[in-house]
UniProtKB/TrEMBL annotation:
Protein's UniProt name: Cytochrome c
MF terms in GO: electron transfer activity; heme binding; metal ion binding
Keywords associated with the record: Heme, Iron, Metal-binding, Signal
Residues annotated as domain Cytochrome c: 34-114
InterPro entries on file: Cyt_c-like_dom, Cyt_c-like_dom_sf, Cytochrome_c_Oxidase_Subunit
Record-linked Gene3D superfamilies: Cytochrome c-like domain
SUPFAM superfamilies: Cytochrome c
Amino acid sequence: MQKFSILLVLALIALACGGGENAPSEAPPTATNAAAKKDIDVKKIWKVRCIACHGLYGDMGTNGAANLQESEKPLEYRINIIKNGSENGVMTPFGDILSEDEIKAMAEYTMTFKKE
């Protein structure tokens, strides 16, 4: 009976460890899988990076920040401003801080503030 108990414990340990090196659950995620699963939390980025000047709803205008509720600027312009900063130097460039995907997501997010 003692041998059976030891064998049972070893079998349970083997099952808990995943059953082998080639098991699908053990494969590391590929770069494409990681990118596809990557969720960008634009609201979190907004609260950390943008809210101080633009406000919660994009209309605060602190330190000369643009009122995003009234802005008619297209997406590509917004991407450029977020990445490189504003022409007048009021807005800080975020190209070295945010990824390309995050910058695009943030530019798209700023367009949701438009008054309808």
